[in-house]
Each structure stands twice: as C-alpha cells, then as structure tokens.
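Reviewers of the previous submission asked for a worked example of the structure-prediction workflow described in the proposal, so we include one complete record here. The input consisted solely of the amino acid sequence. No template or homolog information was supplied to the procedure at any stage.
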Amino acid sequence: MLTEELAGSSSPAHYLLAETLDGLYTPYALRLPPAPGPHPFVFIAYGNGGGGMAWLRDRVHRFRHITDVLLDAGYACAWTRYRTEVELGYQTGGALRTDVRQGMGLMSRAPLEYEDEVAVLRHVAERPDIDADRLFHLGVSHAGEMLFKLCSQYQGLLRAGVAAEPASHEFLTLRLDDDAKVTTLDGLRDIESLEMRTVGHARSRIADPLEVSKRLDGVDIPILVLGRAEDELQGIFRLTYELLAEKRSDAEWRSWSHHIHGYIYPESGPDGVPAVDDVQREAIEVIVDFFNRNGGAH
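From that input alone, the workflow returned the following structure tokens.
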C-alpha cells in the first residue's frame, strides 16, 4: 500500500490493489474520515477504463473536491480505476460463469470493466474500518452505465447508487449501426458524434425490450439518475430513468443545465482550489442527501 498525504487534510489517499476475478489487480485510492469506523463507503468512477495509476493519481488530486465533500459527510470513498471497455462485451458475452479445471480457474469469458468494480467493492468490504452493508456507487458517463451492468448480474453488493449522465446505449440495446452519426471500423464503433436528445428518439431505438426488462429486473437498489440539459444524449439519460421507474418506485431523477459533461466532479486549478459553481454545489448536495436517505451516514 502507498499512502500519499493531501495538502490541508488529515485524510490521505491510500493506494490499494484489489485482486480481479481473473487474478490480476486493479487500483483504487481510498480516503477515510478521521472519526473511528466502520464507515459507509462510496465507490467513485468516471468514464471508460484504462490509464492505470497515472490516471488514478491525477483524479485524486485534480478532482479531489468530491472526495473532500464525501469525507465531511462521514463517508469513506475512493477514486477507482478499471480495465478498458470491450466493444459490446456486455451484450455478447453474457453473464460470467466460472469453474475449475486441473485445480485452476476457468471462465466463460474474460472479466469486463464493471467486474473490476465488483472486485474493488468486495476488497474494500473486507476492511474493518468499512461497513460492508453500506457500500454506494457514484458513476458518470460510461461509469453510470456500468452501475446498471453491475446490478444486472451481481446483486447484494450495493446499498444505493447514482448514475450521472449514464451512456446506457449498450445496456438498453439501442440500435446504432444505421445511425448516420455512427461509423464502424474493424468492428469498433465511433459514437462520439451520436445525438439522442429526446426520450422518444432513444426509445424508438431499443432493439430488444424484453432483454432490457430482464436486465432491469436485476437492479436491487435505489438509483438516482442525473441528466444534463445540454447533453447530446439527454434522451438516453432520461429513458434510463423512465425504464427503471417502471420497475422500482424508489428510482429518482434530477437534471440541471451545465456546460461540463461530468459536472458533479468539480476540477481544481494548479493552486489546488476547486472551481465549484452553484449548480455543482446543489447537485453534490442532492447526491449526499440521496445516500443519506438510503442508509448512508447518520
């Protein structure tokens, strides 16, 4: 374990390695409140995977504000890193099945990025200073979709979660191959220019409603879905909430107008001071309140 002090804080970052489901390791940077535990814990994620320790250290410092707020609210928390997304790996791979051959493990497929989240959650839950019954998830963009993928196949890990601007096109089986703004090269799609601003447009693209319904049946926790009015995928964000709300009465939705994708993670400047506007401050207050209302810090 590597411990790194953070200026002006009594809660350093502890860099830890969680063993993944296939026996490799994925890093996370844990911060603990100064009070005695066990503490509720928030898993913090952003976007696609990759980048390793360099990415993680940058997040710990440049996007420190979200962890400072969670610590003040009584939560242990960790910026996390995981493997890179596999194109349509969730759609085509199915649930991960494991067995033993010649005394060693055998898998039906390689683990995917959301299964590295599972590994971190299980690893941190073993700590005596963490309350294993109060684990929460906070994910933005692709990491918002990852929350739904995780819940669809791994129940009982989390108490509640927030999916901010969730890019849920794969989870919702959205047809994209015939979209004029989507290109494919060597089997990899480029969706950077994709636009689905309305729920009606996004809903019309669902390829397999029965499969989506089955996936949502696996969601066993309250989820708060956050949108962003200016985002090109606002229709997907809202549709994700509406489909979840058809299944669970505890699903919640909030949306704000903001110019930054990932606005719930305010960025600090070279001087270490975070630039936080009123929308960001309100959104983070809503997130903390949501965790508190669903079994979080008392």
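The longest helix spans residues 278-293. We consider this example representative of the routine output the project will generate in years two and three.
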